[in-house]
Amino acid sequence: MNQDALQQRIRQLARERNALLIAHNYQRDEVQAVADITGDSLALSLEAARTDQDVIVFCGVHFMAESAAILAPEKTVLLPRPDSGCPMADMVTAEGLKALKEQHPDATVVTYVNSSAAVKAESDICCTSSNAISVARSLPAKKLLMVPDRNLGRYIARQVPEKDYIFWEGYCPTHDRLKTEEIIKAKADHPDALFMAHPECRPDILDLADHICSTSGMYEFARNNPATTFIVGTEEGILWRLRKENPDKTFIIPSHGLICPNMKLTSLEDILKSLQTLEPRITVPEPIRLRALTSLERMLAVPR
Ligand code: 13P
Ligand code: SF4
């Protein structure tokens, strides 16, 4: 089957199955194109919770589908590629976090949604790249334990300096490898360009940014800013929608390394198979789900 035929077949089967197809902003172009909704991790989990459709096909990585299953346990949540993990999420385990908590009993644990359900269950509150600063500011505790992303943690620490921080030393291999030389070169090649960066980038990269935001925040910034050229400090899958929504603007990826292999695993064939078989289904054991849900709900209650 060619690409058009596959996309048509997927759309038809999605209707028959009463399925919502959601895709993260880093998915392959043809996967984003066939989805009902594209967005950042928070927006997609909220859509999954809000929809009245029976089946959610989550084109993203494992922790995202797990968040959907935590928020919407009555729905069938499918992850077309169950092997699509997030290396950063795998850098912390529930046991490791428990051990660190014992050393800092007075700290509040703030866990990035890029984490397993078991780690969320050991946390006090979750955050995403789009609400991390508001979450940190909302907490009465003086001491915050930031898990697992050391770069997001240090970014929050700079923005909310009145707190004391302990950082888990996890990182996103894709964002962490971006080098300052690459940004300096891109800026020299495009002197009028604005640089927007994801908070998973290292602090020296964020120092060079004109705007720091989540993936969906980048669409908003590019749309509303009169500048015509943007250097994009995140995974290159974001280019598809940036270019579609802003045909007169130029978007530059400053490095060849900005590819998340896990985000590229899901193919149209995988989505079709998943809709045909209603597998692989993501579920979370109820005791863990309930505790992880508390951390997610506390986050959702924080005003933006
Ligand atoms: P967003 O929540 O900004 O989409 O980020 C998710 C992610 O995995 C970034 O690497
Ligand atoms: Fe995980 Fe990084 Fe891939 Fe996002 S881009 S899913 S943080 S490895």
Task: Describe, in plain words, how this protein is organized in 3D.
Catalyzes the condensation of iminoaspartate with dihydroxyacetone phosphate to form quinolinate. With 304 residues, the protein is of the alpha/beta class. Helices cover 44% and strands 16% of the residues. The protein has 15 helices and twelve strands. The protein has helices at residues 3-17, 29-34, 41-50, 62-71, 94-103, 117-121, 132-138, 150-159, 173-176, 180-189, 203-206, 215-224, 239-245, 268-277, 286-300; strands at 19-24, 37-39, 55-59, 76-78, 108-112, 125-127, 143-147, 164-167, 194-197, 211-212, 229-233, 250-252. Strands 2-1-3-4 form a four-stranded parallel beta sheet, with helices on both faces. Helix 4 links the parallel strand 3 (55-59) and strand 4 (76-78). Helix 1 (3-17) runs parallel beside helix 14 (268-277) and helix 3 packs parallel to helix 4 (62-71). The chain binds 1,3-dihydroxyacetonephosphate and iron/sulfur cluster.
